Amino acid sequence: MKFIWVFHAKNIKQLSIIVIAALFAASMLYIERSQLMVFSTPEGPQAFYKAENEENRIALTFNLSWGENRIGPILDVLEQKKVENATFFVSASWAETYPELLKEIKERGYTIGSHGYQYKSYTNWDDEKVRKDLRISQQLINDISGQKPTLLRPPNGDFDKRILKIADAQNFSIVHWSVNSRDYENPGVDAIVKNVVPETSPGDVLLFHASDSVKQTHKALPVIVDQLRDKGFEFATVDELMASTNAESEEIK
């Protein structure tokens, strides 16, 4: 049996308008979703730690909670190596103490995420105390830098399903990591490089620190950047990795 489809010009015009409207609505939803940066799945909010992509893109991330001596050299290395994308998860209490350094991170074009206000584990707090800390840290960082953080790395990287739901309700996406440099142990430049370069694969989120406790990160970083580039990697934002169509998340209990 054959079917013959007949479209009148008027019907085609109406159909075109509907399609255009649908595409516009979808694009606006995508833009709004990208701005909120909430990494949710049908199973509920998840912690983002790695994206599967075919473009060899990875993300550099730095935790920063105290001190003023290491952030400058690290920013200088990123600038000298022409690394345009990196994310700094900063404690709001640090931002209060060093507002000019927070502004410098923003002025150099890097993404600012929240590392909470107090450097204490959320899992030990009740819901309202966590919400308050999230609100205060977000407001302070926004007031100082003009950049409202939507990415969250909880203090100590400590969270559970309850914290994921609270963060999601406040339009935060929790960002973990898939490669740990262990630079906070100050094991030596060669050890930091070895902890990162051989372990990195496409879509990875790399963890470094920029607090005064790390004494070798700024020395290891240029070596790591060069070696990763030699392996064909490009440095993307966490946002770009999260926007990948295929993303991995960890099940949190």
What do these coordinates show?
With 253 residues, the protein is an alpha/beta fold. The chain has a single domain (37-250), classed as Alpha-Beta Barrel (TIM Barrel), CATH 3.20.20. The chain has helices spanning 9-36, 71-80, 92-97, 99-107, 127-145, 161-169, 189-196, 217-230, 238-242, and strands spanning 40-41, 44-45, 47-52, 57-64, 87-90, 111-114, 151-152, 173-174, 179-180, 205-209, 234-235, 246-250.
What's the short version?
The chain is α/β, with parallel strands linked by helices and 253 residues long. 43% of the residues lie in helices and 17% in strands.
Structural domain count: 1
The CATH homologous superfamily corresponds to Glycoside hydrolase/deacetylase
Measured as a percent range, the helix fraction is 40-55%
Q: Please provide the ordered H/E string of secondary-structure elements.
A: HEEEEHEHHEHEHEEHEHEHE
Mean pLDDT figure: 84
The rounded distance between the terminal residues' Cα atoms is: 56 Å
**What structural class results from the helix and strand content?**
alpha/beta
Number of alpha- plus pi-helical segments: 9
Quickly name the level 1 CATH class: Alpha Beta
Our estimate of the beta-strand percent is 15-25%
The count of strands amounts to 12
| Rg calc | 21 Å
Under CATH, the topology is which? TIM Barrel
Low-pLDDT stretches are: 1-38, 247-252
Strand count, sense and barrel status of the largest sheet are:
6 strands, parallel
The shape is globular
Second-tier CATH architecture: Alpha-Beta Barrel
